[in-house]
Amino acid sequence: FIYSAINYEEGDKFEFKPFDERIHGIPQSIIQGRFNDDDFDDIALVAPQSNGLHVLLSTGDGKFLQQIYHIKNSPISVVRINFNNDSIDDLAILNSNQTIGIYLGTKLGIFSEEKISFQIGKNSTDQSFQLLKVVDLNRDGKDDLVLIDPVEQTFRVLLGANCNKHF
Known about the structure:
Blueprint: E1 2-9, E2 13-20, E3 29-33, E4 42-47, E5 52-58, E6 64-70, E7 75-81, E8 90-95, E9 99-103, E10 116-119, E11 131-135, E12 144-149, E13 154-158
Antiparallel strand pairs: 1-2, 3-4, 4-5, 5-6, 7-8, 8-9, 9-10, 11-12, 12-13
Organism: Adineta steineri
Pfam families: FG-GAP_3
Protein name: VCBS repeat-containing protein
């Protein structure tokens, strides 16, 4: 995994600051978020082959601190969501067994073990969802989850994915 910060300089020159970080497995889905209580953009990605969730917390100086979480069911897509309405970014992860796991974030940038998991089809072979997105489709102020199945050329919407539980 290579991250490059692009800085604009006078005279239309760009400065690239490469950042190399070893990721086990092949990253399949990557997102940006603020996963701890600072003002720096962090990165989260999943690697299905290694059942890994990698969270890279920015230190603000072009460096990152990496945390690796083992996910049980081959994660294939990750999105940032504020599931429990506490203003701290949480993660929703679509797994290859067609479940979505919710990992609650903390101010320290540490994610809880999977507290919530739900099946998105009648059984694990019901659909072949490969992509998860978060949007507010009905403009009610709550995040909605959109799942995309490229094989069947369908999508599914889960409205109001937030909850007010504290775990």
